[in-house]
Every structure is written in structure tokens, then in C-alpha cells.
Amino acid sequence: MIFDGEMYALVMTDESPPPGEAPAPRPLPWELHPSLTEERLTAAARLLARGRADAIAFADPWAGDDAWSIGCRAYAFSKHQLARAAEGGRYFWLGVLDETHHFVFLIEGVPVRFYRGEAEDPSRRTLRQQENEAEQLALALGSDGTEGLMFRFAVETEPDGAVKRIVFLALRGEAGRTECFWPVPLEDGSEGPRNSGGFLQLPLSAGGKAAVRPAQPRKRAGPKGVSQEPGLLEGA
Fold this sequence. Notes:
By secondary structure, the protein is of the alpha+beta class. The protein has one domain. Helix content is 29%, strand content 22%. The chain has helices at 4-12, 29-32, 38-57, 67-87, 131-141, 230-233, and strands at residues 94-98, 104-107, 110-116, 149-157, 163-172, 177-183, 185-187, 190-191, 220-221, 227-228. Strands 1-2-3-4-5-6 form a six-stranded mixed β-sheet. Strands 7-8 form a two-stranded antiparallel sheet. The protein has a two-stranded antiparallel ribbon with strand order 9-10. Strand 1 (94-98) and strand 2 (104-107) form a beta hairpin. Helix 3 (38-57) packs across helix 4. The longest helix has 21 residues, at 67-87. Residues 188-236 are annotated as: Disordered.
């Protein structure tokens, strides 16, 4: 027989906080692992944002680009930004574990993936963990406490596809229980600036105008089929 007091004690063993009490604050990324520092997460998020900004900048609706094609290109461009930074040694802590469409990158050995979508509503596909990702996570964090754990960047976008904000997440299990929710301060402490942000602007040549390759003068055939520069034919 279970008395009222014992029943109350059993109920209170549940993870939910007692009535009237605020839930315990979620840990910050660097509290989960020291490699997940604010500086590194911000740098990785900026590379993701830059890839999406480039995809939008190169979009050509007249040629048939639509939201789907731009989204595919944004994913590829973001992968490229991370891979190029890793290969070039721009960040010593950045690496790539899986270069396929399941793309997994490393922050000092800690595996991370990214997706476009709402941070509060990760899809089943987002919660799917690759075998090499799980193995690498166990190596980085140890086998204890890593069961079902995964790290993700959620890239939230505006209706036009521009970055609204990027959130770093620690999710667990098929249900995607959120254990860490950290909006990345992309610029000046703000969360997810629009494409007008300074670091999202595409590089311009000196003078503030896009570099244009000058047209080469065409050669014309002179006497007896000899090719001559136009200036030479005109006596310049």
C-alpha cells in the first residue's frame, strides 16, 4: 500500500520541477564541453551565414532559381565555407569528419551538424545520427552520458531566405529533448543579423565597385592574313 506522502514522493521524482518553481537553467555549450567556446561557435555560425548569403547573392530567378534550388545551394555553399576554412588552416580547431551530404564537421574533435529550420522544432531528419558521428562524440566526450546526444546548429531564415538567427543546440534521443539552447551572437551581441550585416556583405574590389574584367581588344587580320592589333592598323 502506498500512502499519500509516499505517492507524492514518487511523483516528485519526475524530471519536471515542482509546481511554482522555475525549471533549472539549461547549461551553456562550454559547460557541456570546453571545446565549445563562444568564440568558436560564433566563428562557425558566421561561416554558415556567409554560405547562405553567397547563395542568395548568386541566385538568378530569370534562369529558374526558386526557393528549393537556392536552399540546396545554400547548404552546399555553407558546407564549402566550413570545409575551405578547415583545409586552409584558418581555424586550428576546425575539421571535417564527413564530407558527404550528411556533412559533419568538428570543433576540436566534437562533431556538429547544421540544418535550416526552427530551433524549437527539429525534424526527424535532423535528429538522425550517423554512426561515425556517434563514435566521434563518444571519443570526444567519453562514453558516459553521450547516448543519443547530438550537437546541431539551427539556421533560422526569413521568408526571403536570409539568415534570421542561428542557434546552437544540444539534443538527445529520437524525441529531440533540448539540453542546450544558445542563440549565437553573430554581430555586436545581436542574434542573427539580416543580410545587411557587415560580415554578410560580399567582398568588393577597391573603390567599392564589383571587379569587372576589362574586355580584350579583338585582333583583325592585316595584309596577307597577318593578325595585327587594332591600334597598329590605325597608325596608333
